[in-house]
Amino acid sequence: MAQFPTQPVLSRGESPSLFDRVLEDNTVKSDTEGGYEFRRPRFTRARRITFTTGFIALPHADYQTIMAFEAAHTRSLPFTYFDYLHGTFHQVRFDEVKTKYVGVGRNRMWDITIKMTEV
Q: What pTM, to 2 d.p., does this model score?
């Protein structure tokens, strides 16, 4: 299974200010006419985690590495992501990849935000 490229493959690590970890709501809700709400847990599926991470002012060569990895996995193939804050590995898929060019002149830099969901 492929692993998401981070240091030392890239020249810098993920930006902590862009990191977010959200647990999926694992309840089934049902509203009634009287204004009450019934809730129960889903028994068939464990809670999944959605990760958001990114890179600020990433050099163009690293940008190409990440975009090649994203193109190879095309939001359908799972890969291994290392959650560096918790020290755990997760099998995830891409949900969204946003890029923004922030370079000036010959200094080609990119801001990248990546959203991934646990398989």
A: 0.84
